[in-house]
Amino acid sequence: MRIALIGAGSWGTAVAGLAAQEASEVRVWAHEESCAAGINTNHVNPGYLTDYTLPENVIASSDIVWALKGADGIIFAVPSMHLRSVAKAARHDIAPDTPVLCLTKGIEPHTGLLMTEVIGEEIGHPERIGALSGPNHAEEVCQGALSAAVIAAEDPHVAAFFKDVLISPAFRVYVSDDITGVEMCGAAKNIMAIICGIAAGSGLGDNTLALIMTRGLAEISRLVHARGGDPMTCMGLAGMGDLVATCTSEHSRNRMFGVAFAQGVSLEAYQERRHMVVEGAAAAMSIAELARSLDVDAPLTFALDHILWHGGSIAESLEHLTDRFPTSEFYGINE
Ligand SMILES: NC(=O)C1=CN([C@@H]2O[C@H](COP(=O)(O)OP(=O)(O)OC[C@H]3O[C@@H](n4cnc5c(N)ncnc54)[C@H](O)[C@@H]3O)[C@@H](O)[C@H]2O)C=CC1
Ligand SMILES: O=C(CO)COP(=O)(O)O
């Protein structure tokens, strides 16, 4: 069996290693030629996860046609801002019945589309496209630390196919049919992680972090419900699981960016320094747009959008948030 892994950042690299346990060959497409060369020569990606040695059946190229050739399954792991252009470039080299899995976490700005919907618009046959999400930092998964994820797909055969490819004693894979809920949770939790980072970087304590995570989860549940997903998904790996991991972990780019931002580092400077995507920044904008269009009350998302993209101050946003009159804890989720 041959798997194509489109994207050689941290997560694509770690998941290539997982897939290589089941597949006879994993072909990785890397945006940077140097990443492909390092994987082929030393079995190490020189750009990401540099302490991790990939299995020898993982090979790479910056030629996407080569990567897709003869693939029995295709996994997309590119940042959200590049997903549409990469899927467009791949469209003529993907057979209509090849199962596809999306690892990207985000919502497309202006369209409000989920990442699987973006891929579906470009390559067609959206029913064969699933999404994987959960509390999975690449740095831990590649070292075999016990982790779990959920794969959501409309077609259960697609979820079962990728579950068989990726599951191992150290990487537990559950399945779901709530693709909307799983993808909304994966995109929105990054916003809460940045806010937790800002709070921690501003000297606020553990009570505040727990407050942000809990009210964040209620906000995510309202968004999931309004977008047509199942709020129960928020209790699972893609919801609470990933929220806890990303809001508390030292590996979280989103949380660490929030800490740095509170100390005066700009988004551009942070991304330039780390060469890593901070998906929650883009998600603050795209999910704020989506929430307004769906008439969802999303105060934490609106606050981060205001701070990052409209010049709002942290102090002013905190004052605005704490001025709100608390109502029923779970409003907007059941009705
Ligand atoms: N890192 C992690 O532990 C996890 C990441 N994810 C998600 O996976 C997705 C990919 O993130 P990472 O692998 O962490 O990325 P990363 O931040 O480690 O690396 C950035 C990636 O962007 C690529 N890139 C840069 N410019 C590009 C362009 N013009 N066109 C196409 N690709 C370009 C780079 O080649 C590299 O693959 C994101 O949506 C992220 O939220 C999900 C779960 C875990
Ligand atoms: O989605 C991720 C982990 O599940 C990666 O995002 P963070 O690095 O911000 O946690």
Automatic annotation (TrEMBL):
It comes from Collinsella ureilytica. Sn-glycerol 3-phosphate binds at residues 105, 134, 189, 242, 252-254. Residues 3-158 form the Glycerol-3-phosphate dehydrogenase NAD-dependent N-terminal domain. NADPH binds at residues 10-11, 31, 48, 105, 138, 253, 277, 279. It is found in: Cytoplasm. The active site is at residue 189. It catalyses: sn-glycerol 3-phosphate + NAD(+) = dihydroxyacetone phosphate + NADH + H(+); sn-glycerol 3-phosphate + NADP(+) = dihydroxyacetone phosphate + NADPH + H(+). Residues 178-317 form the Glycerol-3-phosphate dehydrogenase NAD-dependent C-terminal domain. Keywords: Cytoplasm, Lipid biosynthesis, Lipid metabolism, NAD, NADP, Nucleotide-binding, Oxidoreductase, Phospholipid biosynthesis, Phospholipid metabolism. PANTHER family: GLYCEROL-3-PHOSPHATE DEHYDROGENASE, GLYCEROL-3-PHOSPHATE DEHYDROGENASE [NAD(+)] 2, CHLOROPLASTIC. Pathway: Membrane lipid metabolism; glycerophospholipid metabolism. InterPro entries: 6-PGluconate_DH-like_C_sf, 6PGD_dom2, G3P_DH_NAD-dep, G3P_DH_NAD-dep_C, G3P_DH_NAD-dep_N, NAD(P)-bd_dom_sf. The gene is gpsA. This is Glycerol-3-phosphate dehydrogenase [NAD(P)+]. Its main location: cytoplasm. Its EC number is 1.1.1.94. Belongs to the NAD-dependent glycerol-3-phosphate dehydrogenase family. Catalyzes the reduction of the glycolytic intermediate dihydroxyacetone phosphate (DHAP) to sn-glycerol 3-phosphate (G3P), the key precursor for phospholipid synthesis. It is an enzyme of class 1 (oxidoreductase).
